Amino acid sequence: MKKLLLSLAASMAVGAVWAYPDKPVNIVVPFAAGGPTDKVARDLAESLRKTLGATLVIENVGGAGGTLGATKVAKAAPDGYTLLLHHISMATSPALYRNLQYKTLDDFEYLGMINEVPMTLIGKPGLPANNYAELSKWLEANKGKINLANAGLGAASHLCGLLFQSAIKIDMTTVPYKGTGPAMTDLLGGQVDIMCDQTTNTTSQIESGKVKAYAVTTPKRLSTPALAKLPTLDESGLKGFNVSIWHGLYAPKNTPKPVVEKINAALKAALKDPEFIKRQEALGAVIITDKRVEGAEHKKFVEAEINKWGPVIKAAGQYAD
């Protein structure tokens, strides 16, 4: 009788896996609604729905630099109905937060990467430097007087700023804001000098000529019309400089393999969806088409990012409890 019950239970479990999804799937976004990561999630949900055939619900769980939302998913039932869409903070939080409530490489199933968003180095309108060579001289001549804006601890602009200071070996006064909006407002008003932020936040300001644009942070120049003439930091002399804000999809550890495979297949289909590609390109994002769309390669990439950012963050001594 016991063997029969175990067999029935196993059959029911297998049936549940193959029926997946038979109810709405929650995608947790660990930031407030309306931001770049939220936009990626909502666009992706539309495309995933076409393949999975289920309703996908975006749940915004902001706070603590994205770690509250990530913690919620790490502790969720491993059934495929609670997923996490997160950005580069997935790799930087282990160094930024000393009391992290999850283990980045151990507590999730890696489902695949989605996109990469380039970044731009920009300056206030009145900055005397008109290109990166002139900016480099200006930075050297104004050591101890430079204000570098960012959107808060762990934000893309914070991370890019840390790596930039490390690369040029010049310390600046970091000015954190509660979001990109107020940081950009003060940059436009001349209260701060420079900022490094995502193309999703800077392209319109560059295109309108409201800020000075100096370089992009990717190894290759961008094809976006407004940014095509901007040199890369690598070609400008900072060899190997490469920062982009990437997004990936995750499930709680021990989510059944068939469910993981089904979600990964749906993700791959979404990344080829013309509508999704069009929406992402409008944001300046580049869709992932290489081997990082596979869970194992996605995880290898995140581990490499942890190793890349850890020393930079620790050297800066900027932590959160």
Automatic annotation (TrEMBL):
<dbReference type="InterPro" id="IPR005064">
    <property type="entry name" value="BUG"/>
</dbReference>
<comment type="similarity">
    <text>Belongs to the UPF0065 (bug) family.</text>
</comment>
<feature type="signal peptide">
    <location>
        <begin position="1"/>
        <end position="19"/>
    </location>
</feature>
<protein>
    <submittedName>
        <fullName>Tripartite-type tricarboxylate transporter receptor subunit TctC</fullName>
    </submittedName>
</protein>
<keyword id="KW-0732">Signal</keyword>
<keyword id="KW-0675">Receptor</keyword>
<dbReference type="InterPro" id="IPR042100">
    <property type="entry name" value="Bug_dom1"/>
</dbReference>
<dbReference type="Pfam" id="PF03401">
    <property type="entry name" value="TctC"/>
</dbReference>
